Amino acid sequence: MNLTLLAEKLNLKIRCGGDRLDREVSGGYAGDLLSDVMANSKEGDVWITCQSHQNIVAVSVLKEHAGIILVLGKEPDKNTLEKASREGIPLLVTELSGFEAAGRIYNLLHP
Amino acid sequence: MSQKCEFSFPVEGENFDDAGKVSVEIKRLLKGLGITGDILRRTAIATYESEVNIISYAWQGTIDVRVTDDNILINIQDSGPGIIDIEQAMQQGYSTANDRIREMGFGAGMGLFNIKNCSDGFEILSEINKGTLLKILINR
Q1: Do A58 and B24 make contact, defined as CB atoms within 8 angstroms?
Q2: ipTM here
């Protein structure tokens, strides 16, 4: 499944990286501790988090995530948006909680 | 063909705005040298955590990377307060990070533990009020 379809199914709003939504999502990881995400997330994952500051971008670049989903209605900081745009990391937002977003994405990826 | 390559990057303490920048650059260089897969993944985790450690706890530091046919040697030298009890610092969950650092999702007490997990060789030398030297070896 790619990010376009995921965004459609969950009604995610796209904040940047709209031209990269054809990326294949191979899995997901939910977490707000950066070291946890560095250690345990995988390439191709979509990262579900409530951290909206700019440091999430470097983590996503290093882990080669498909994209980042900010939950609970969080909006990316200005610097986050700038960095993510520059690095080509799609940033999407939702009002859903991390639990709901993760559950729904899991079901879509493992029908 | 025998390959040997070295590069060095400065990291400034407290500069959270650029956290991860050096690690992203190192990963790009290593990819350019044909390093991929698990070796690249482990090196990226080790350099990222080391970079964040300098920013969070030290005044300044450098990350030196030496790549040979056999391994990747990463030396992280900082000038800073040093580590009082290395054994305690190595324990997962132990951290001296302040609230500001923790609010950003850093300082979970996982950094050194993650680095060690990703390394084939790992050594810490620290001197109070002078600094810390971290030596990481990753076999290719």
Answers
A1: yes
A2: 0.91
Domain spanning A3-109: CATH superfamily: HprK N-terminal domain-like (3.40.1390.20)
CA of B2 vs chain A CAs: smallest distance (Å): 28
- Beta-strand pair A27-30/A45-49: parallel
- Determine the Cα–Cα distance for residues A44 and A36; give it in Å rounded to an integer: 16
Q: Which CATH number fits domain B5-139: 3.30.40.10, 3.30.565.10, 3.30.70.260, 3.30.200.20?
A: 3.30.565.10
Q: How far is A101 from chain B (nearest CA, A)?
A: 20
Look at phi and psi of residue A51 and say left if phi exceeds 0, alpha if psi is from -120 to 50, else beta: beta
- pLDDT, one tens digit per residue, over A41-99 is 999 999 999 999 999 999 999 999 999 999 999 999 999 999 999 999 999 999 999 99
Residue B105 CB neighbour total at 10 angstroms = 21
